[in-house]
Amino acid sequence: MFGKVTIQIKLVEGDSAGTVTAFYMSSEGPNHNEFDFEFLGNTTGEPYLVQTNVYVNGVGNREQRMNLWFDPTKDFHSYSLLWNQRQVV
């Protein structure tokens, strides 16, 4: 019903196209609930992207992509998901 999870991630440097670094949480069953937090692969020089998605009762299509304003390959960074019955942050 509510919670928070935090993970520390440092991405691979250079050409990481084809690599997806992710963490997710999912319930079981065909009408599952799921939180996705994914770093998409990068061609050197391109911005790093984070893609998120939320599934509720087995339905997703809530993807959002964000450009990062920092270099996630230089150090470990903390990323959190915080949720309750009304919202996911």
TrEMBL record:
Lineage top rank: taxon:
Eukaryota
User: What Gene Ontology terms for biological process does this UniProt record contain?
Assistant: carbohydrate metabolic process
Which GO terms of the molecular function aspect are on file? hydrolase activity, hydrolyzing O-glycosyl compounds
Q: Has the keyword Hydrolase been applied to this entry?
A: yes
- Alphabetically list the UniProt keywords: Glycosidase, Hydrolase
User: Which Pfam family is one of this chain's hits?
Assistant: Glyco_hydro_16
Domain GH16 residues, every copy: 1-89
InterPro entries associated with the record = Beta-glucanase-like, Beta-glucanase/XTH, ConA-like_dom_sf
Is this entry keyworded Plastid?
A: no
Question: What protein name does the entry list?
Answer: GH16 domain-containing protein
- Give the organism the record lists: Punica granatum (Pomegranate)
